Each structure stands twice: as structure tokens, then as C-alpha cells.
Amino acid sequence: MPLAFGLYGRLALDQVAYREVAAAVDASGRFAENFTNRGIRSYLWGPLMLFGDENDRRATAARLKDMHGQVRGKGRGNFEGERYSALKPALWKWVGTSSLLVFYTGYVSTYGKQLDAEQREVVYRTILAMSDYDLNSDQAAVPATVAEMEEYYESVATTELADNDFLQWANGSFDAMPVPTLFGPHWLHVLVTPLWRVATPLLSRPARVCAEAAAHPRMRELLGVEWNSRRALEFRVYTAMIRAGRRYLPKWALLEPLAYNRYRYERLRAAYTAPQLTSFAPAKP
Fold first, then answer.
1. Segment 43-85, tens digit of pLDDT
2. Are 204 and 175 in contact (CB under 8 A)?
3. How far apart are CA 89 and CA 108, in angstroms?
4. How far, in Å, CA of 77 to CA of 82, rounded?
5. Tens of pLDDT along 12-52?
6. Which of 31, 167, 186, 262 is the most buried (most CB within 10 A)?
7. Are the C-beta atoms of residues 83 and 74 closer than 8 Å to each other?
8. The whole model's pTM is what?
9. Alpha-helical segments (H) within 89-160
10. Of 142, 155, 269, which Cα lies nearest the Cα of 218?
């Protein structure tokens, strides 16, 4: 569901609480150029890797790895002298794990009380199996189980996650995101800008609350989150709305287009195979 990424995408801020990652994305300049465009591009990688056919999935994963190979150098400004390389196994593992956790954490936070430990494991391993993110390195591999993931996250949270200027800038930018310019003519961007500026703080409120509810305690600390009963109630309202939408809205209104395409294909495949014989051997008397 695109809604899952929209409401829980803010969890990805934990990536730039890792100083080397923050130095890399800050040096690219693409976040500062247009924070919204950068977020849309990040989102669009996901459906191709998760719901494309096998050839497209593998090609997308290979392209992602090749492009990340260009991300290496030294930080600038507040990250002056900080060396980074996106293909460094420790960084690749962190970005891969935290990217997966946007979807896993969002799902279990929405359905937490209805999921036991075995079901949570199924959710995690399903998302892991659908992705093709690992490098050819054991040190870069995303943890294979929930227990291993939780142990790994705690280790990184304790030893690596820390405040930095880019983290705080990115956190504030979520509430004042610029008009996306990837689609449509310039005149349309200018036309919608006043409405966009009014609507963005209102529309970003559910995303802020959902991400704060699901965030790791270390990230709540770094971002100065003050969780209280009013926010907890607000979060319960949002998750109830998500669950209701999942139950009552049609699939085409809920699913990411590539996911809906896959859903329709599997339904059609089932319809074609249902009448088929299970064996061509002669029937036994």
C-alpha cells in the first residue's frame, strides 16, 4: 500500500542518524534541491523491486547497487572530513535493514495486537524474500530473522546512532516539503504552490504521529519526541482508519499499481488453472 510508505516513511530518518550515511546524502545535494522529489524517487524503487517480474526485479536491484557504487567520497560542511562509501558493508546493511523496517514496522504497528510472534516472523521474512538487496558479502546481509534484526538494531542504536545537523534538517523538512516537480509543467507547479503550502502541514500530521509511535526509543530521543496519551489516542484513530480501509475499500484503491497488477495476474492465473486436471494418467476404475 502506498499509504504504508506515506504514513511510516518518516521512520527512514534512522538512516541519517548514522553519521556516514548522513554525510553521503548531504553531499549529494539532492535532498536540499527538492526534498519531495528525492522522497518520490526513493519510493519508486520499492515497487519495482517488490512487485516487478523476476527479470525486472533483478535488473532493478543490480542497477541500484551499481548506482550506489558511485556514492563515495568525503563529507562537506558539518561533515567535513567524514569519509563514506555506500557499498561499505556496514552502511549497506544498515540502509537495507532500515529500509525494510519501514514496511515491517509500519505493518506490525498497525496490526500489533492481532499478531503473535510467529506471524510477525512471517511478515518480516516475506518482505525480506521479496527484496533482492544484499551485496555479495555476509557482512552486508540484512538480518534473516526478527530476533537477529532486533539484536542488530539495538547494537547500531547504541553504538552508531547520534544527532547531527542533517538529521534535524530532514526531520523539520517533512512538515514543509516543497512542491514536487518531477511531473507536469512548471506553470502547474506555480499554480498549486499556495494550496500545497497550506495543505502540507495538515497532511503530514498523521505521518508524523504514526512514525513517532513506531520509532525506536533511540530515535524518539534524538528527535525530541514527547509521547503522551493524546498522541497515543490519535495514533489509535489513524491505525483504526487504516484497518477499516484495508477491509472495506476495493483493491484498486488500496494497492500500489504494480502490486495490483500482480494481484490481478494471480487471480486470473488461478481462474485458468482451477478447471485443469491434476493428472493425465488414465482414471482408475
1. 888 888 888 888 888 888 888 888 888 888 888 888 888 888 8
2. yes
3. 28
4. 10
5. 999 999 999 999 888 887 778 888 888 888 888 888 888 88
6. 167
7. yes
8. 0.86
9. 89-111, 117-130, 146-159
10. 155
